[in-house]
Design goal:
12 strands, four-stranded mixed sheet, six-stranded mixed sheet, Butyryl-CoA Dehydrogenase, subunit A, domain 3
Amino acid sequence: MLKTGKEHLESLRDGRVIYIGQEKVTDVTTHPAFRNAAQTIADMYDLKAAPENRDAYSFEENGERFISYFLRAKTREDLVKRTNLHRAIAGMKHGLWGRSPDHVSAFVTGMSTNPSVFGQYADNLLAYYEHMRKNDIYATYAVIPPQAARNPEFYTKANLPIPTLRVVREDDDGLVISGMKMLATGAVFANEIWIGNLIPLAPTQLAESITCAVPVNAKGLTLWSRKPFERDAQVEFENPLAHRFDETDSMVMCQEVKVPWEKVFVHNDAVLAREIYIKTPAHCYGNHQSNVRFHTKMQLLVGLASRITQASGADQIPAVKETIGRLAALEATLGGMIAGQIQDAENWPEGYCTYNRRYMYAALNWCTEGHSGIIDVIRELCGGGVFQMPADISVMNNPEMRQEFETYWQTPQLQAVERMKLFKLAWDLIGSEFAGRHAQYEKFYAGASFIVRNHNYREAPWEHYHQIVDDLMASYGYPGQVAVPKKAAA
């Protein structure tokens, strides 16, 4: 099934419960805090469902057609097909929407290539993969415990319920879960939420090890949204990004939510709850999408930096050219890292082809470390220009003010209105509340930096590295040392 934008918007009118503070929201397609972003997702569905994109963004299997982010790659060409769709989706939102429909779908698709990891729940996982691709489901995830729950002894001593989500009861027809989980980015626009654990659990945390899928409108499930930026971005000219690209982040609150057994994927296994992402291509598939998404955002940042300098003529200054050249080099570096993931793809698991995990994690680390520094460079290039603009574009409605504005705010390179438009865009990307969220988001997109580096540590070929050192040291000795015969080659 190739769902259209209209069909996806209709699927969001399902009785879901979202809170903005104490305000209850049940229809995100019309609410002023969410409606433009909801349309952004609808536009994405229309892009991939358009007849002219059918061959590029979908594939056929057993007589049915599915979106390409559900493609289980068996060749490099399959990986390229997946990447091309990730790039198209990211391009629609300039890399500003992290948990787009191709993110969690990529995780589940990767899992489906090695379902044996799930043990007794392998059939459930495969059935869920089929359910997602046949219905073109937009799922997001909540896979981190709330920060307040990381000291369970406090709650035990105070005779309080531990807030992290857990199984509270088993029934014949399924499990019952209660508690909270973070951070369901994009959940207000999604159909379902994958609940799991990307952070390792203690062996005793069996109840918390639950991994399952629940519909956003499940009875007892509510989403507590952070402050939506779209609500305060009523004029697109003033906040062009927050106006339609705020994917929102929500805490998932569950109060006696029933999960049918067929939607359970891990239960009572604290180790497996995390291993399902690493022992299958799930984490690699999903975070390759993350790399592509950031690369698209990086292209926007580089283009903006160059336009900012052109607006004042600073682009002719050698030192400024050098700075812009460095940004361009950084963008190309990430592009090469992404291309390398396909070029040096792995034949893993058996019968399938997966993006190179080492290169993917290296790129993930690059993105985590690099974003803040890149934003700082663009801040320096903007200088005080972002503060020299009128409060808003309403000055154009007053004939006298308009004449003064157009006369005194222009530069030889740019008319006043276009210059203001450029700086408004720059501020929404580097300095507004929307930009502040992205600055924090990119630091923790794939978890804290030490988590990302631990992934790189795990995938590194340490035996190979150590052997290089050992072989080099074995090739020489100290003066007078009796030579040790070299071992014959095997």
